[in-house]
Design a protein that fits this description.
Distance between the termini of chain B: 54 Å
Number of strands of chain B: 8
Radius of gyration of chain A: 18 Å
Order of helices and strands of chain B: HEHEEHEEEEEHHH
Oligomer: heterodimer
Shape of chain A: globular
Number of helices of chain A: 10
Largest sheet of chain B: 4 strands, antiparallel
Structural class of chain B: alpha+beta
Helix content of chain B: 25-40%
Radius of gyration of chain B: 18 Å
Number of helices of chain B: 6
Distance between the termini of chain A: 28 Å
Helix content of chain A: 40-55%
Structural class of chain A: alpha/beta
């Protein structure tokens, strides 16, 4: 089963259940969540891919949190105590308050499972795992350039604190990726999102993707969340080219809906099945 | 706890400064502004790993001013949860932002955060990036607001990502107002 873990900007609470999209909103048990941004956008993208391929829907463990950290507490208490009950094959960590105290217990819990699930981290989940020096325990990180600087700087506890010597020099992508891998500050697979998307596996560049080139996508909040959600579903299904496919579909959606910097991410998520169908037809 | 304090005051921390630790970034920003207004030489720093809880920001001050600062923050009811001494760690990224034009819109980036407005009405059309839990909420609150009239992100959010967003927001607002 896919288990998606993250916070949503709602009142303090714990929301656990299989995900579905009904009437344009994400349903988790009795909770309804706008798919306009954040963890819910990531989960909705995952749901769309699972639904298209008729695969088991993801289970979500969401904490309602508007940055007082209480929802993050509830979420990790559930994950670090009960995740074995959900028999996870793949776990994705997303938006959260990166509280150091929950990091190692999470790792311990995962290590206690009979079979280690695939582990993906983006957003606060990625910040947390880098900060507690457990990035290399993960299978996939999905940084943008701002976050890559953070992964490359072994002293930075947050992207805010990247040191100037990294920012001032004309530092190459490869040297930043090298630094992140050498210090074990990134996952086995690192997907650097940007104008050109770069895919690294154990510090070896395996692919890059630049077409279709749609500059507006950088401005749209959630275009990274859709990638994380889609690749979670595709990896769970055992798709051999899951990461590259998620990146490709994301760009094709931008092209299909003729996005502008004002486009909202829900429009991307809605278009996933249509673009997946076009993609499958083209490659078959 | 004793070991952590011992490490904090160990020899590696030359010329130690004091730092004030608060439960939220919002309190840090407010108190820093208040202390500056009162004439103290303070600045924002990253807390050292020994006392870090997560996405933290702290206020650094000269230890010689500790008593005066403690009195001031007590009078202002801005009591920190802890006062410690540490080495200097300046967040360099605070000084940086980058403005990019995209087809009728203008985007400003600071660190991992991006904010975009339309050029005609200056409405905030998108906020992108960030990993802290308040960012989706801040984005929802600011969406479609004119940047000249919108609340400051740090008044809505409460994390380091919100603070980076504030830097991008300020740069963009300054550009709009200066035109």
């Amino acid at each position: 089963m896919i288990v998606l873990v993250g916070t949503v900007p709602y009142k303090t609470g714990l929301y656990v259940g299989k995900a579905a999209i009904q009437g344009g909103v994400l349903q988790i048990g009795s909770g309804s969540f706008s798919i306009e941004r954040g963890t819910a956008a990531m989960a909705a993208s995952c749901v769309q891919v699972c639904s298209f391929y008729n695969t088991e829907m993801p289970l979500c463990i969401f904490g309602g949190d508007i940055s007082d950290g209480k929802g993050t507490d509830l979420m990790f208490q559930e994950v670090n105590t009960n995740i074995d009950a959900y028999k996870p094959d793949l776990v994705t960590l997303h938006y959260m308050f990166p509280k150091v105290k929950y990091g190692q217990p999470f790792i311990n819990k995962i290590e206690s499972l009979q079979k280690k699930p695939q582990l993906i981290a983006d957003a606060g989940g990625m910040y947390l795992m880098k900060t507690i020096n457990k990035a290399h325990f993960f299978d996939v990180f999905t940084p943008d350039w701002g976050e890559l600087y953070f992964l490359a700087d072994e002293f930075a506890p947050h992207p805010l604190y990247v040191r100037s010597e990294l920012l001032e020099k004309n530092v190459s992508l490869q040297s930043l990726v090298d630094a992140a891998y050498k210090k074990n500050n990134t996952a086995k697979t690192t997907i650097v999102k940007g104008v050109v998307d770069h895919l690294y596996a154990d510090n070896i560049k395996i692919k890059e993707l630049s077409q279709p080139n749609i500059p507006a996508m950088e401005a749209i909040g959630g275009t990274g969340d859709t990638i994380t959600g889609m690749l979670s579903a595709l990896r769970y299904m055992g798709c051999s080219d899951a990461d590259y496919k998620a990146l490709t579909i994301n760009r094709l959606i931008g092209e299909e809906i003729k996005c502008s910097p004002a486009t909202q991410i829900a429009e991307f998520i809605t278009a996933i099945p249509k673009v997946l169908a076009q993609y499958e037809k083209k490659i078959s | 706890m004793f070991e952590a304090l011992k490490r904090l005051f160990a020899r590696k921390y030359e010329k130690p400064k004091g730092i004030l630790l608060y439960a939220s970034v919002q309190e840090v920003i407010q108190t820093q502004k208040m202390l500056e207004t009162e004439g103290f030489q303070v600045r924002l720093v990253a807390p050292p790993p020994e006392v870090r809880l997560g996405c933290d920001l702290a206020i650094e001050f000269n230890l010689i001013e500790q008593e005066a600062i403690e009195t001031t923050i007590k009078n202002e009811k801005s009591t920190p949860y802890r006062i410690v001494s540490t080495k200097e760690m300046l967040p360099d990224i605070l000084k940086r932002s980058l403005i990019v034009d995209i087809d009728g819109y203008v985007m400003c980036k600071a660190g991992n955060m991006k904010i975009t407005i339309d050029k005609r009405e200056h409405r905030i059309v998108n906020i992108s990036g960030g990993g802290c839990p308040d960012i989706p909420y801040v984005a929802e609150q600011l969406h479609n607001q004119r940047i000249e009239e919108a609340k400051n992100p740090i008044e809505i959010g409460n994390s380091l990502c919100s603070y980076l967003l504030q830097i991008a927001f300020d740069s963009l607002k300054k550009k709009v107002i200066s035109k």
